[in-house]
Amino acid sequence: MEILILPSPSHAERLAARLVADRLRAKPDLVLGCATGRTMEGIYAELARMHAGDGLSFARARTFNLDEYVGLAPSDPRSYHHYMREHLFSRVDIDPANTRLPNGAADDLPAEAFAYEASIAAAGGIDLQLLGLGSTGHIGFNEPLSSLMSRTREKALAPATREQNAPMFGGDPAAVPARALTMGVGTILEAREVVMVVTGAHKAEILATATEGPITAMVSATALQLHPRCHVLVDEDAAARLQGREYYQWMFENEPEWEAYRS
Question: What is the reported pTM?
């Protein structure tokens, strides 16, 4: 795991987008794992700008999303299907047939989860997985006590998660679906590269727990400490509680791998 501290949320979002763009240019048929939420909106906006202004093409790319609410149809404006169409898919040249999200409205959710895992495997696995960090330290909807070897499955959402996501449902946590289909922690760890973006002072404590605390199923993001190529991009506010902050800053400023990204 590498932690890169950037001056602001927009700097972290732009760096994440540059990493996606560079991987996509190097491998046009990139398999991209997509996330949703406020953190991702700036990343997708920058990727759309690169497509329009710099010729970045998604024509051969394939995507798999982390999760979807149970009970919401893909056409529902509160669904992650709708979110992805609005923030990325409709703004770039990706083939809709190459985009995949779990179907939370499926009649047989276990079968849908099994088929989703099979689709990822058939695509050759995920090359680059984007992640945010939930308020309980979850990645995807892998709530506390999710097995670190878990696969795509149905999961009950914690009250804190429903409260965090309430703005998409009129501000009422009770209106947020109580369950979701989500990639498992084990599924996420099989991605060849992971980029997690965390911004804001409200994430400082959980970021420190996730990256510097003990590995535990109570905080699913701690499993990323085991990943051989995980980059955690954070802003100054989110980095406030990190014990290794000075080292992380030195590393970003001095490691040759990041030279091209420091401007």
Answer: 0.97
Assess contact for 90 and 157: CB atoms under 8 A: no
Question: In terms of Cα–Cα distance, which of 232, 208, 256 is closest to 4?
Answer: 232
pLDDT in tens, 15-52: 999 999 999 999 999 999 999 999 899 999 999 999 99
Ordered by where they begin, the domains of the chain are 2-261 (3.40.50.1360)
Q: How far apart are CA 7 and CA 195, in angstroms?
A: 17
The residues, any chain, with a CB within 8 Å of residue 120's CB and separated by 6 or more, are: 31, 64, 126, 187
Q: Encode pLDDT of 144-161 as tens digits.
A: 999 999 999 999 999 999
Angle between helices 80-87 and 38-54 (to 10 degrees): 30
Q: Write the DSSP assignment of the chain as a string of letters.
A: -EEEEESSHHHHHHHHHHHHHHHHHH-TT-EEEE--SHHHHHHHHHHHHHHHHH----TT-EEEESEEETT--TTSTTSHHHHHHHHTGGGS---GGGEE---TT-S-HHHHHHHHHHHHHHTT--SEEEE---TTS-STT--TT--TT--SEEEEPPHHHHHHTGGGGTT-GGGS-SEEEE--HHHHHTSSEEEEEE-SGGGHHHHHHHHHS--BTTBGGGGGGG-TTEEEEEETTGGGG-TTHHHHHHHHHH-GGGGGG--
